[in-house]
Amino acid sequence: MTFDEQNAQGDSNTCSTIINSFVSADVDLILANATAALQAAQAGTDTIPVLGTSITDYATALELDSFDGTVGGNISGTSDLAPLAEQAAMLAELFPDAETVGLLYCSAEANSQYQVDNVQAELESLGYTCTQYSFSDSNDIAAVAQSAADASDVIYVPTDNTAAANTEIIDNICRPAGVPVIAGEEGICEGCGVATLSISYYDIGYISGEMAAQILTGEADISTMPIEYAPNVTKEYNAEICEDLGITVPDDYVAIATEE
């Protein structure tokens, strides 16, 4: 096996350039990590097998009219979607007396919109008042996060690439304001959250590798391979931020291991 690893640094135009170079090189398989890379691969080829990973919802990312769990054609992969109803239940478990929840996300990421819409519906069914706060890119995240912190008892941040790259900004606003953040995944929680119900990105990466091996050896046809999901989710908490905010979590939460 020969691997050609290219990092688009989150830029969609660079994603397209990289995909076009892969297509020109007639690679045997493309692994597209995150939504922008998958969308570029979809636009770049309909013949080379494409495996997505870290994709929250394939129907949303690929604008599919119907989705039964299998994309078909030359695309399959793994999803990083954690159970959204259970994430809403986690917020209710930790903050039963809260009234207002701000949903903070990047409007440029369709999968983020999908998550906040679903979590909002779940939270409203539990009696919370929810408001969506969207930022277009990293340039306005501070202003929007400040508005959310000013008006919310708790903030929810979904699995969102822009938020993940700017957790320090979110933390510097929410923690001093005493507003806890429930995060969609471990990385965001480590940077600015108090707790998360998270999948393991190692697990879905490993599953993606197994799928790739089956495709390359001819053991499987990508057009019939269903999207795979992480086998387990874990209740995790950020010990430092919980201590700062005076939050005590139940015994079934696991502390996120932080680098010293």
Quick take:
The chain is of the alpha/beta class. It has helices spanning 12-24, 35-44, 58-61, 84-94, 110-125, 141-151, 161-164, 167-177, 186-192, 201-216, 239-245; strands at 30-33, 50-55, 75-79, 100-106, 129-135, 154-157, 181-183, 195-198, 228-229, 234-237, 254-255. 43% of the residues are buried.
| Count, helices | 11
Strand order of the largest sheet: 5-4-6-7-8-10-11
| Total strand segments | 11
Shape: elongated
Largest sheet: 7 strands, mixed
Helix content: 40-55%
N-end to C-end Cα span? 36 Å
Low-confidence stretches: none
Give the topology string: H per helix, E per strand.
HEHEHEHEHEHEHHEHEHEEHE
Roughly what fraction of the amino acids lie in strands?
15-25%
Mean pLDDT: 95
Q: Structural class, from helix and strand content?
A: alpha/beta
What is the radius of gyration computed over CA atoms, rounded to a whole number of angstroms? 19 Å
Key traits:
260 residues; 11 helices; 18% strand; four-stranded parallel β-sheet; alpha/beta; elongated; 11 strands
Describe the structure.
The protein is of the alpha/beta class and 260 residues long. Helices cover 42% and strands 18% of the residues. The protein has eleven helices and eleven strands. The protein has helices spanning 12-24, 35-44, 58-61, 84-94, 110-125, 141-151, 161-164, 167-177, 186-192, 201-216, 239-245; strands spanning 30-33, 50-55, 75-79, 100-106, 129-135, 154-157, 181-183, 195-198, 228-229, 234-237, 254-255. It has a seven-stranded mixed sheet, sandwiched between helices. Strands 1-2-3-9 form a four-stranded parallel sheet, with helices on both faces. Helix 1 (12-24) crosses helix 2 (35-44), helix 4 (84-94) crosses helix 5 and helix 6 runs parallel beside helix 8 (167-177). The longest helix has 16 residues, at 110-125. The mean pLDDT is 95.
